[in-house]
What does this fold into?
Amino acid sequence: MKAFSLFVIAGLTVNCCALGQMSLGMAGPEVSFETAVQAVTVVPGSRFAGAVRVSLSDGWHVNAHEPLDDFLIATVLSFEEKEGFSLQATAYPEAKVITLSFSPDPLAVYEEIFMLAFEMEVDSEVAAGDYALEGVLQFQACNDAMCAAPRTESFSLSVTVGEASTEEEENLPAWFEDAPFALLKEAEDADEEAAPAVEDPEEDAETVADAKESTDDVSAPGNWKELADQFQVVNTLAGYSDKDGFLAFIAGDSGGDDGSSSGGRSGLWLLWIVIGGFLLNFTPCVLPLIPINIAIIGAGAKAGSRSRGFALGGAYGLGIALVYGSLGLLVVLGLSSAFGTLNSTVWFNGAIALLFVVLGLAMFDIVQIDFSRFQTRLGLTPKEGGHFFAALGMGAVSALLAGACVAPVVIYTVLQAQDLYSQGNMLALALPFGLGVGMALPWPFLGAGLSLLPKPGMWMVRVKQAFGVFILAFAVYYGYLAWSLMAPASTQVDDEGLWVHQLEAGLEQALENRQPVLIDFWATWCKNCSVMNRTVLQDPEVLEALDSHVKIKYQAESLQSDPTRDVVEYYKVLGLPTFILLEPKE
It folds into this structure.
């Protein structure tokens, strides 16, 4: 990529409020664009680089340029043809690999704000003047509950062509340097298509469906609307739901989620982590060392006063909390992208499962792992009066050398924090710190000389073994993740004849037998739909609850085609998956 000495902002922000899809009643994020180019004036016959900053509504993401599943719609940047201008290369940011709360299957996505880079060539015959280039972004957006229809949005880019570059320099926006310019050369060398024709996501989705030899004939010819008018809508469920929520929906409850449960679950996680950290003090590789460490930091009887001992114990506990909190932040923030990619692989989950097996066995003393013995080799001796910084440092050292009783819980806490953070939960950053807080809780009181410690005994071994059971359970969980990643989920609908794939045929059957109806609106590009299909919709309790219903799968693949467009509008489908319960009118 050529260097440019002069810079300018192509100042334009475009707000796109789900334009085409809203007319269909389909939900989706609001999207805005900001654009900038590196040259104030572009000389004919040269190239210039630019960037696009895309912002989505909170809670939404789009599939990456290279999705992990072939049937998902990729994010593609292109420009409409403009005489004298040709796109040479496009570069996309590094995708973030996430797992949604209801599925272990990984997704490669761009989250709420991401930057794209491009390089454009100006023909030597282009006359001086101002030009407006029309950019197009193709994408498909989803959140934790539903997927909006694939769509394209346009934005404008202003470029000034002149005989020579100007001397005036203007500042670029702060986000500009974060665009993936370093990948432009790599993209061009790889012979990527620089200016692909703008793809119609609806046609693309149809092609994917055909390629997978779908047997689902979703057409509803004839008088489907006349039949639909003879039914009344009893309930609607938009987006993913677990089994309990889906059963409540069938029973007539709204099945909605106001989003407050996510925060409640996060708070509950933090509470359990703090409690777990506190209980780690009562394991045999921590509890016996507490009197020794109190003496080393000069707390307890050596402190001179209870208030000073309380402060020294607090400093010691703060050292513990800072070590675990910093470790968690380092992994979750500093290594977030690489960690997420690793966490989506079979071998990583398998390795974590094996590690947890070893650490779990250590809790039963089948395997010996204990680093606390190294503490005696550091030359630390009891202090008279103590020093706050020494207590802080000693707390940090003890956190690192706590041994087998702590390591498994620390590793699990960091993994859980990473999973929650990948789902957009900022409270996840507090989990490792919460573990340290739990371990630190008794120390101010112990430092003050209060007799809070129970006598060592066999009960400590039982506490340790209880942690072992907990750790082995998560070894099974990560082993299951590894196994599930070895067999990619099929996008086919394997319903063993339980579902009707013709809307008209299903409605006719329900009218004839006076049966209630469930319509499942889905598509191959809807990840949430495939998860629902192979989990909730195959659950025996759910199938039993739907036994008396006529079950219709409506493949809303191409939203612009007839009659899908009319059906989606008629039932006010907000996104996929959407489930509609109907009953024949009296």
